[in-house]
Design brief:
The chain is built from seven helices and seven strands. By secondary structure, it is α/β, with parallel strands linked by helices. It has a single domain, classed as Formyl transferase, N-terminal domain (Rossmann fold, 3-Layer(aba) Sandwich), CATH 3.40.50.170. A seven-stranded mixed β-sheet has the order 3-2-1-4-5-6-7. The longest helix is centred in the C-terminal third of the chain and has 27 residues.
């Protein structure tokens, strides 16, 4: 069976959308695929309980445990790789995973690592995308599913959704509208990749 590992740091709303879609659209029957594990770098991440409620295995690899290492970021990534590789996943899905990954990690999962970003890439890479879109006077914003490369938010685009920026929008208003679309396009992008695997 093709296995998917999802990485989260918080509430896991995109993770939940993926789990819901995988069940509703029968990924196990159609693609011989399933979400095998959800891993968080935060012990208290609320998404871990949601994953357990869906019957999915969970693990925690806490990045704070590596603060005293010579290279904390690399030490954490190497431990995370060990946890992920136990599942031999066809896809590693970043779903609100709030860590900048090392080139070592990205290279290890080259071609299997995907992310969702709350802007219409290549516009507004990095943080504070909604505030920047409003500040720049954009009429449209959105979300992008993309392959992960060593360059932040620059991998090949797999799916995009466009949402309007409305007069008087706050950062939270726009974020909420974009998130609704993220929950649609992220599972769709994964499903398309699973279909390509056949």
């Amino acid at each position: 069976m093709k296995k998917i590992v999802i990485l989260i740091s918080g509430g896991g709303s995109n993770m939940q959308a993926i789990l819901k879609t995988s069940k509703e659209r029968g990924w196990s029957e159609r693609f011989d695929a399933k979400v095998a594990c959800v891993i968080s770098n935060v012990q208290e991440a609320k998404g871990l309980q949601i994953a357990k409620d869906w019957g999915v295995e969970t693990e925690v690899v806490a990045h704070l445990n590596f603060k005293s290492a010579e290279n904390p970021r690399l030490a954490f990534d190497k431990e995370l790789i060990k946890a992920i590789d136990r599942y031999s996943p066809v896809l590693v899905v970043l779903a609100g995973f709030m860590r900048i990954l090392t080139p070592h990690f990205v290279e290890h999962y080259s071609g299997r690592l995907i992310n969702i970003h709350p802007s219409l890439l290549p516009a507004f890479t990095g943080l504070h995308t909604h505030a920047r879109a409003i500040e720049m006077g954009c009429h449209f914003s959105g979300a992008t599913v993309h392959r992960v490369t060593a360059e932040l938010d620059h991998g090949a685009i797999l799916e995009q959704a466009v949402v309007p920026v409305l007069r008087g929008d706050t950062e939270q208003d726009l974020a909420s509208r974009v998130l609704t679309q993220e929950h649609i396009i992220y599972p769709r992008a994964i499903e398309r990749l699973l279909g390509d695997e056949n």
